[in-house]
Amino acid sequence: MGVRLVLASANPHKAAEMAALLATSGFDLVPRPPGVPEVEETGATLEDNARLKAEALVAATGEAAVADDTGLEVAALGGAPGVRSARYAGPGASYADNVARLLQAMDGVALDQRQARFRTVALALFPDGREVAAEGVVDGQIAMSPRGEGGFGYDAVFVPAGGDGRTFAEMTAAEKNAVSHRGRAFRALAAGLHIPAAGTPAVPE
Fold it and tell me: DSSP secondary structure string, 16-48?
């Protein structure tokens, strides 16, 4: 039996990615209970928001929880949308709304000036208050228009550096997870927990 963690994300796409990334890393993953209300992301940083979500699940279940928060940071926009990436086009915005606003804000910006990076903070929180956090970053650029049918969020307009020019949305899930910000963050989180064979997390004091 692996380390038992409740997935804090209310976003089914993110939860599926988190589960895929952690399933082979010694964790016994439990879906977010349906009765737990969605947590308002009021933190000033990605880590703040990840902690808020994890705290809500620990309080609701009495079990250890794992959460994350992700921001897209675009150089030409001074690092925006950043911590407000999920709400860039306003409260309740859809993925398409956020992408449309981003492309509008980038209108007229040349391809060689469209540098961006995705940054994820993943955080595991235990009922006794101990926590482990890890960060994953991937550099890239914003495409001129959406491409691809896979992924979610801003995946259709993000082209990771060092690849073959495809957006995340043009990759398979396995291809994306191998190089993505979320993949890097959760692999680092698993390493940070130092999971021994018995399945008990050796969380740093």
Answer: HHHHHHHTTTTEEEEPPPTTSPPPP---SSHHH
Question: Catalytic site residue 69?
Answer: yes
Q: What is the pLDDT of residues 66-104, one digit of tens each?
A: 999 999 999 999 999 999 999 999 988 999 999 999 999
- CA angle, corner 33, sides to 155 and 14, nearest 5? 10
Question: Which fold would CATH assign to domain 3-193?
Answer: Maf protein (3.90.950)
Domain boundaries, the chain: 3-193
Outline where DSSP puts E strands in the chain: 3-7, 27-30, 65-74, 81-82, 115-125, 131-142, 158-160
Hey, what are 87's tokens? 């709400």
Determine the pLDDT at residue 23. 72
User: Which residue is catalytic, options 68, 69, 97, 139?
Assistant: 69
This prediction has a pTM of: 0.88
Sign of the alpha-carbon dihedral angle for 72, 75, 76, 81: positive
Q: Position of tokens 């990076």?
A: 117
Give the span between the Cα atoms of 38 and 31, in whole angstroms: 14
